[in-house]
Amino acid sequence: MTAQTGAERLDAVSGAVAQVVEELRAMLFARDLTPGSPVRQEALAARLGVSRAPVREALRVLASEGVLDHVRNVGYRVKVLTAAEFEQTYLMRRVLEAEVLRRLPPFPTPALQRLSAVNEQIAEASARGDLTAMARLNSDFHFRMFTASGLDLVVAELRRVWQLSDGYRAYLLHDPISQKRIVDEHAEMVEALRVRDHERLVSLMDHHRDGTRPQLEAVFTPPPA
Amino acid sequence: MTAQTGAERLDAVSGAVAQVVEELRAMLFARDLTPGSPVRQEALAARLGVSRAPVREALRVLASEGVLDHVRNVGYRVKVLTAAEFEQTYLMRRVLEAEVLRRLPPFPTPALQRLSAVNEQIAEASARGDLTAMARLNSDFHFRMFTASGLDLVVAELRRVWQLSDGYRAYLLHDPISQKRIVDEHAEMVEALRVRDHERLVSLMDHHRDGTRPQLEAVFTPPPA
DNA sequence: CCGAGCGAGATTGGATGCAATCTGACTCAC
DNA sequence: GTGAGTCAGATTGCATCCAATCTCGCTCGG
């Protein structure tokens, strides 16, 4: 049951703070907020129909995660990553994901099928040109694997690391050729999971991750003023 | 209750939220809060002379870091780590610290001396039996090295991981024999730094980290509920 | 004696109000 | 023309206020 593009009405979330956090993450995926964008408390509060109090808590959380920058008496804005910082997210992902993947228990067939289904959805989103859905589904694909490790704290850290670059993720998927490559490599990973070849899975993932680097450099090279 | 005499210009920390966060971290180091302790908003606010608003933001931050647990309409409490979770903090530290240490640039002599000085202070705190100071200085020693790597995002993640076990750190230092071992091993690390033997530094650190495991098991074994 | 039901007090979640601070445009002296 | 000074509007930081919810001891029927 995957409701495509239904992210605006998540009243299912218990608290207002969680709602605001989710909305902000969605806005990042959708490039509604891009690196450098200011985040106004009053505007966000109005948009979600809550007061500034929960908004402030949510912003503080995102800032502590490093997703937002905060300057006292000035406000929050989406953090702009330097190339060096982006490199560090790759470094952390490489070492933490390897540990997680090596510890994955055998995947039951239904779980493998669900994973493949997510990858299919990525292909469909790609066909529609829906970058936002792709970004979300791509995270979903990866974290379904990670979560299966049972290493909840490590997965939580990985989530934080991924979120640091959420604002950039759509740019990495921009190119149709990359999109196909991503889907194909995901399929290879599912196969490695099926035959329980963990080392192959790790090296596939390393290759997969490195494959997004060229797109990244394109993001960081054009600094006109 | 309103102290609007305007005398509060001495705030060392810029904001009330940061002040609350720091106080909470200090309370954890000092075992003023121990795993499982509830954290009452009103009490904390009164203790620091601020209102509940900044306290709530601070608590939300600590909860998002995993230091506190939060249950809606019930409150915050210091997170109790399971043995499995503790194991994960070791795992993350092992892989992230190795990456950081391998990238350390040469330490100038004054920096090495400062590092040694911190280790001396640990020894002095040990002699005084001041566990709180030991815990703080021990963090200081390690993060002085890490920070020198320049990998600020990785160091930030390491800080988060360390903070997860801050509430337990004093227990790990409880035993006088461990205290001496820690100081000695720190000295060995300084020496490895001096001669720029990174691989030796990494393996010393691995050994150092593993050395605290026995104390840990002692913490987790006696659950006579 | 014991468990379900109940209510007062404690506590949190969120809204609102206001002072402090920043920003950006405007003025004016040089 | 240019740069320092300043002033209004925008925005944040924090305090305060109220409603919603939970906790826990008490009562009461079985």
TrEMBL record, chains A, B:
CDD domains: WHTH_GntR. The keyword Coiled coil does not apply. InterPro entries: GntR_C, TF_FadR/GntR_C, Tscrpt_reg_HTH_GntR, WH-like_DNA-bd_sf, WH_DNA-bd_sf. This is GntR family transcriptional regulator. Keywords: DNA-binding, Transcription, Transcription regulation. Residues 14-81 form the HTH gntR-type domain. It comes from Streptomyces endophyticus. SMART domains: FCD, HTH_GNTR. It holds the Pfam family FCD. The keyword Nucleus does not apply.
